[in-house]
Amino acid sequence: MARNTETYVCQSCGNVTAKWAGRCEACGEWNTIELEASEAGPPGSLGAAPGKSKAKKIEFTSLAGASEDVPRVLTGNAEFDRACGGGLVPGSALLIGGDPGVGKSTLLLQVAAGLARGGASVAYISGEEATDQIRLRAKRLKAEDAPVNLASATALRDILATLKSEKPDAVIIDSIQTLWSDALPAAPGTVTQVRSCAQELVRYAKSTGAILLLVGHVTKDGQIAGPRVVEHMVDAVLYFESEQGRDFRILRAVKNRFGAAHEIGVFEMTGAGLAEVANPSALFLTGSEDAASGAAVFAGIEGTRPVLVEIQALVSPSSLAAPRRAVVGWDGARLSMLLAVLDARAGLDFGRHDVFLNVAGGLRIAEPAADLAAAAALCSSLFDAPLPQASVVFGEVALSGAVRPVNQAGARLKEAVKLGFSGALAPTGASDKSIEITEAGALADLVQWVRKAH
Ligand code: TYD
Ligand code: MG
């Protein structure tokens, strides 16, 4: 018998407690615990109901053996396919998260149209917008001719019943927070509802081989509401990000069971929907011909793709006892470390300067390979010496001041050549015949390279 009990659930992490508290003891968030009624108490232990259901013996197999490559369904949107790891896998569930207004519905409508044009049957179910609104958007995207099955619904029971009879190849739910299961007394959007609706839909996708695309809203502190509970249920989690006031959008895979995480797809929001940006390097380079001090071009890798991006630094004398350090697009702790290493190992004096570092175009860099490029921008600004023209920089800086080799040096150099760069400052060992490489084994080589250019 199901017991009706009331429990307190943290809306951020899903932790369940018996009592209300101001602060969740699991995730430490304040004011996130709310009363939710749960439909049943914990199930009895397996031994408690003898003979009720007979346990089956599970069969073990070996790691080796025939298994096919995962088939992929292409959406016709190359940037989206790339971010998903090379297309969508039947029977898999994806979560696409992002701020309101970033363009999730636009992207998924374009993806739906692409899939439908490719011959797949697609169901686009919106719980947020009326079908008329979506039709208007489709017109704007010039997608109204695509045979997409459109519906506006929020009741999970109706949605599942419809899907089971229609059997579409792909299902798009916009958004998971608007769905509502009448089997639960909790309100729509609560962790309990989000979790159980997602669970039911994922189970449906796995059992029928349908592709499931879920939209998830991000709360103001940057998390999908009830995020962790959904994130571990789905096969891939993609975040759709934008920089304030910018038109381009980055779709970033943070988890992918069928492909590389950290893969990105780049788009630009235009008057007619999201346009693919096939060559993102052009976006992250400011393209100014006159050399300014404090700017270095970093040859980075985002996912599996090389991307060139400009790193800008401004170093100015400070009268403050604790000079200011501000960083956009890079890790603040990493900047502090780099400044300390530059002071200690290269004899520079950043300690009495304010330091600002910015990654152009709003990209966020997490690679250690950016160390040397950031250091080059910092030195260039400190010496007020523009860096050698048409050069890229990459390499990891160790605490000893040594420059360490990084992965995929060849791909980085190739991208630089492709975009017309003629020089590179790179860790020892990197080679490419079409570009003039200055090898940096230690920070002293960097300082010499910056000074020489002056
Ligand atoms: P939307 O897809 O509704 O965002 P989300 O579903 O993530 O909340 O996108 C909304 C924004 O995109 C809105 O501010 C208008 C803009 N937009 C364009 O600039 N061009 C277009 O062609 C479309 C459809 C939307
Ligand atoms: Mg939307």
Summarize the structure.
By secondary structure, the protein is α/β, with parallel strands linked by helices. 26% of the residues lie in helices and 26% in strands.
Question: What is the secondary structure topology, with strand pairs?
Answer:
Blueprint: E1 5-10, E2 16-17, E3 33-38, H1 78-83, E4 93-98, H2 104-117, E5 122-126, H3 131-140, E6 148-152, H4 156-166, E7 170-174, H5 191-208, E8 211-217, H6 227-231, E9 236-242, E10 248-256, E11 264-270, E12 273-276, H7 281-284, E13 295-302, E14 305-317, E15 325-328, H8 332-346, E16 353-359, H9 371-382, E17 391-393, E18 396-397, E19 403-404, H10 409-418, E20 423-427, E21 436-440, H11 443-453
Parallel strand pairs: 4-8, 4-9, 5-6, 5-7, 7-8, 13-17, 15-16, 17-20, 20-21
Antiparallel strand pairs: 1-2, 1-3, 9-10, 10-11, 11-12, 13-14, 14-16, 18-19
Helix pairs in contact: 9-11
The structure holds thymidine-5'-diphosphate and magnesium ion (MG).
Radius of gyration: 26 Å
Q: Which percent range describes the beta-strand content?
A: 25-35%
Tell me the helix content. Answer: 25-40%
Bound molecules: thymidine-5'-diphosphate, magnesium ion
CATH topology of the largest domain: Rossmann fold
Structurally, the number of domains stands at 3
CATH class of the largest domain: Alpha Beta
DSSP strand count: 21
**Weakly predicted, low-confidence segments:** none
Question: What class, by secondary structure content?
Answer: alpha/beta
How does the major sheet shape up?
9 strands, mixed
CATH superfamily of the largest domain: P-loop containing nucleotide triphosphate hydrolases
Bulk shape = globular
Q: So, CATH architecture of the largest domain?
A: 3-Layer(aba) Sandwich
Distance between the termini: 81 Å
Mean pLDDT: 87
**Reading side by side through the largest sheet, how are the strands ordered?**
6-5-7-8-4-9-10-11-12
Helices, by number, come to 11
